[in-house]
Amino acid sequence: MFGEWLIYAVASIVCWGLINVLDSYFVESKIYKNMFDGMIVSSLYKVWGVALVGGIFFTKVLEISLINALLAMLGGALISMAFLSYFAAMLYNNDSPLVQLAWNLSSPLVVVLGYVFLKEEFSIKAYVGMGIIFLGAFVISFSKDSFKGKFSKLMLLLVPLVVLYSTSEVLMKYIEEVRNVEFEQSFPFLCLGQVLFGSIILIIRRKSIENIGKIIKKNWALFFSSEALELLGLFLMQLGIAKAPSISLFGVVEAFMPAMVILLTGVSIFLLKIFKRGDTLKKIYEENMLSGIRAKIIATAIMMVGVYLI
Fold first, then answer.
1. Were both Cys, which of 49, 53, 162, 165 would link to 191 (CB 3.0–4.6 Å)?
2. Phi then psi for 229, rounded to 5 degrees?
3. Helix ranges restricted to H, 29-150
4. How far apart, in Å, do the first and last CA atoms of the chain sit?
5. Taking the C-alpha atoms of 135, 99, 171 and 70 in order, what is their torsion angle to the nearest 10 degrees?
6. Distance of alpha carbon 250 from alpha carbon 130, whole angstroms
7. What is the reported pLDDT for 149?
8. Domain spans of the chain, in order of start
């Protein structure tokens, strides 16, 4: 049950946790003014994933069939689409742990999709696990101090995130398990799918070009760190999914994300003081992340039990 995949999974949530911290900073500082800017920057940066992994495993990449390459690209496009929902939710309520708690609702959907497309069997215990996960979400909804704004609206914004992210995970597992495509072959095309989707949105929203250029120039150090971490996190996540015995086990590790974000935010406040930007992150930490902290911890624990049962 435990092995090499667990190392990749834990490393990936550390990367994603740090990315969430930086995204919270970008939103609070009004660097990201709409849900498109962050997604476009994130998607276009994946060209490095295409170049690096595609270059290293060039011979293997050339062996992939057209249909498998297109499926992997679709998986990447789905991730970029999910990020649109993620940034919309962050702009509505800049509380990464709360958003991650809602993200845990993807686990029951992964089980259902795994049953439909991967023929994975699940028992009555899995149904109980799904119910427990939803119970964890309701714990948050009953806590008035856990969020600013309407929880129902936040959940509505996150529905596309849960659906698209879950579909991407199952699709990549399908490509690797059912269609026997190696990780080194599929990952460059996953990144290419993100690059193409981000490019299409950038063409449609041409006015974003100048704005994105300005924010990258002004915050290049943080942007470089954030996007490099995201690329590494995506690489480790996809590698963990490929190596894991099942997607559900990988989901157990992902359920730690809300707690990881809170922990890493506290650490990052100190580190960002080097850039004289720690005060902004401290404000996010105290006003958003620590509000309703008891309910968030309880909800995280409940949902982790549910994910484990699945």
1. 49
2. -65, -40
3. 35-45, 47-56, 58-62, 66-92, 96-103, 106-117, 124-141
4. 14
5. 160
6. 15
7. 54
8. 4-309
Residue identified by tokens 């991407």 is: 168
Mean pLDDT to the nearest integer, 123-139: 73
Residue 10 — pLDDT band, cuts 50, 70, 90?
confident
Q: What is the dihedral of CA 217, 221, 224, 225, to 10 degrees?
A: -160
Least confident range of 21-30, 31-40, 173-182, 224-233? 21-30
List, in order, residues 6 or more apart from 206 with CB less than 8 Å away: none
Region of residue 292 (left: phi > 0; alpha: psi -120 to 50; beta: else): left
Report pLDDT for 155: 76
Residue 190: count other Cβ atoms within 10 Å of its Cβ: 30
CA distance 296 to 286: 14
pLDDT in tens, 221-255: 778 888 899 999 999 999 998 888 877 677 667 76
Token pair in block for residue 102:
């809602």
For residue 233, give the H/E element and its range.
helix 220-243
Q: Tell me if 110 sits within 8 A of 254, measured CB to CB.
A: no
